């Protein structure tokens, strides 16, 4: 019994988790070596090539000048006409509108000076003149009645809403089934562009 | 060499690199006597004036049932290919807004698409880590789908962007989440060159975008989550020609300026920048003032230059689409505030080959085409006449 008690007092400690053995950190060492190599490469690249390439470079203003010159020498269909040109166009259109009031049958034939006239007449009295019919081949070129412009409805053959998905025109008066005033057929374009 | 010695060398080398970078930065700063806007203003340039109806949405391309992620125009005939979260590519006639092809993809997680120069094939890629090529003239299979004509495998991460080399029908460049860009031979499906990855001077994290120089198709630029853009020569894959620092966040979009000597970038830091390709100079920052909270700054997701370079269109995560006057660095128009604008994030945009139309794609599932009003009317009249 005493032996058993002695044995119990000298019982081995309960098992406990142990730290893993200290294996050499091969992956970390290799990774460090690669990183040092890359850094040394970059030191060489930055020192020799990048810094040297800055020698003899002109200041930024020289390159800004190139940008300005390039932009100034190329037309751009997304840039609107200048305000200055627009003002002169508006003055002429106002003047012609005054004249056309009494001479509407010739307003778009005698040469509306609006530079945007051809092929679209921006004369305010377009509904009373045949500048659109002229392009549509209306036989009666001197006719100023709106009903003469029926052939213009050939425009509706292009991209009507029912032929495509979600044709949307950015016109406040546009509706998907807007009617051409001239021939009462569905048309998705002529009304918006007559404004 | 012991690990301790290696660590010391690492610390010393890092300090040397940082010192060299600082020296480079100061040398560049000394050359920064002005920027594009400063130069333009000193020479009397003023901002372009856009009226509220000068640029209009003339088409809304509806048909995708998921977010639109990418779009590309053909070089001619005004067709657009778009890629969407709905797992489809759609080819549109931009003039009539009719769909000419709808391609169901094997992997719905598409991130990019591109038209081949001849307009007969389209490429797309995404989370499948591959780039798929479809010939639009192929016979459809039993299910009515256009079959894949070639699949380019080899990337170890998602394909974020792809572009055909402009004057070479058979070459394509991709960018990837595996930190590399790859030049492919489309006819054989083989990788010709890998840019970055194991080689030094490559991007250190995901590459998000590529743009090939149309003036010199041997050069292309890439943008990455490591906040840099890098210039590559396809003939020298071993290292980047130049690295462009400046952005403070992921570079989501890169696009060459029309003259081929500069390129623009769009970033998570909310800014767009113009860099000089040859010298590395940052010529201009295009940035709006925002609140103090960084979370309020919308990220620039996509960019495109107008044909003259006068306008820089930039799409943002909040649905805005700014037209920047590149010369004076001012926003001259926000397409997001116009009638019929998108109702969600602008994810992609691109100019038609003749520069007369801008197409935007959005998370609202639509694409929209924008044109200048007078040009639009002329086009319509011309079409009617014929």
Automatic annotation (TrEMBL), chain A:
It comes from the Eukaryota. Residues 1-10 have a biased composition (Low complexity). Residues 1-20 are annotated as: Disordered. Residues 11-20 have a biased composition (Pro residues). It comes from Phoenix dactylifera (Date palm). The gene is LOC103702092. InterPro entries: GG3-like. This is Guanine nucleotide-binding protein subunit gamma 3-like isoform X1.
UniProtKB/TrEMBL annotation, chain B:
InterPro entries: G-protein_beta_1-5 (IPR016346), WD40/YVTN_repeat-like_dom_sf (IPR015943), WD40_G-protein_beta-like (IPR001632), WD40_PAC1 (IPR020472), WD40_repeat_CS (IPR019775), WD40_repeat_dom_sf (IPR036322), WD40_rpt (IPR001680). It comes from the Eukaryota. The gene is LOC103705391. GO terms for cellular component: plasma membrane. It holds the Pfam family WD40_Gbeta. Belongs to the WD repeat G protein beta family. The keyword Ribonucleoprotein does not apply. Keywords: Repeat, Transducer, WD repeat. It comes from Phoenix dactylifera (Date palm). One of its GO terms (biological process) is signal transduction. This is Guanine nucleotide-binding protein subunit beta. PROSITE patterns: WD_REPEATS_1, WD_REPEATS_2, WD_REPEATS_REGION. WD repeats lie at residues 61-102, 152-194, 200-242, 244-285, 339-370.
């Amino acid at each position: 019994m005493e032996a058993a008690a002695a044995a119990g007092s000298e019982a081995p400690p309960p098992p406990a988790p142990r730290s893993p053995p200290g294996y050499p950190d091969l992956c970390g060492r290799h990774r460090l070596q690669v990183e040092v190599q890359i850094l040394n490469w970059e030191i060489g690249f930055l020192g020799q090539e990048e810094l040297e390439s800055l020698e003899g470079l002109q200041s930024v203003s020289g390159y800004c000048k190139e940008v300005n010159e390039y932009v100034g020498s190329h037309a751009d269909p997304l840039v609107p006409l200048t305000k200055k040109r627009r003002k002169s166009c508006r003055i002429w259109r106002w003047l012609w509108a005054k004249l056309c009031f009494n001479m509407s049958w010739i307003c778009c034939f005698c040469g509306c000076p609006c530079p945007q006239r051809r092929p679209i007449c921006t004369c305010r009295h377009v509904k009373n003149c045949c500048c659109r019919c002229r392009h549509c081949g209306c036989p009666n070129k001197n006719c100023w009645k709106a009903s003469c412009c029926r052939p213009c409805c050939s425009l509706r053959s292009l991209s009507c809403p029912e032929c495509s998905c979600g044709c949307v025109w950015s016109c406040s008066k546009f509706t998907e089934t807007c009617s051409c005033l001239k021939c009462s057929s569905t048309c998705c374009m002529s009304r918006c562009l007559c404004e | 060499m012991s690990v301790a010695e290696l660590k010391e060398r690492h610390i010393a080398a890092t300090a040397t690199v940082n010192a060299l970078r600082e020296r480079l930065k100061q040398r560049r700063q000394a050359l920064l006597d002005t920027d594009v806007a400063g130069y333009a203003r000193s020479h009397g340039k003023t901002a372009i004036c856009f009226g509220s109806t000068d640029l209009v949405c003339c088409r809304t391309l509806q048909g995708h049932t998921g977010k639109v992620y990418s779009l590309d125009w053909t070089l001619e005939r005004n067709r657009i290919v778009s890629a969407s979260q709905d797992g489809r590519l759609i080819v549109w006639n931009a003039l009539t807004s009719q769909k000419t092809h709808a391609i169901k993809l094997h992997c719905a997680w598409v991130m990019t698409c591109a038209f081949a120069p001849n307009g007969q094939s389209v490429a797309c890629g995404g989370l499948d880590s591959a780039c798929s090529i479809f010939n639009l003239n192929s016979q459809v299979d039993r299910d009515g789908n256009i079959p894949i004509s070639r699949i380019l495998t080899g990337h170890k991460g998602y394909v974020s962007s792809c572009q055909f080399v402009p004057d070479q029908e058979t070459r394509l460049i991709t960018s990837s989440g595996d930190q590399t860009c790859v030049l492919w031979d489309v006819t054989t499906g083989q990788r010709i060159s890998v840019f970055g990855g194991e080689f030094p001077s490559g991007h250190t994290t995901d590459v998000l975008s590529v743009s090939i120089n149309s003036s010199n198709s041997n050069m292309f630029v890439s943008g990455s989550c490591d906040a840099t853009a890098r210039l590559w020569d396809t003939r020298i894959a071993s290292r980047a020609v130049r690295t462009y620092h400046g952005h403070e966040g992921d570079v989501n979009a890169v696009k060459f300026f029309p003259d081929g000597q500069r390129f623009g970038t769009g970033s998570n830091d909310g800014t767009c920048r113009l860099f000089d390709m040859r010298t590395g100079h940052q010529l201009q920052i295009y940035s709006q003032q925002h609140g103090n909270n960084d979370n309020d700054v919308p990220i620039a997701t996509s960019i495109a230059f107008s044909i003259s370079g006068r306008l820089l269109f930039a799409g943002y995560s909040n649905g805005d689409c700014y037209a920047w006057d590149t010369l004076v660095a001012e926003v001259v128009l926000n397409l997001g505030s116009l009638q019929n604008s998108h109702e969600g994030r602008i994810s992609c945009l691109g100019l038609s080959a003749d520069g007369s139309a801008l197409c935007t794609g959005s998370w609202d599932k639509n694409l929209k085409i924008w044109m200048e009003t007078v040009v639009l009317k002329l086009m319509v009249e011309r079409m009617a006449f014929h």
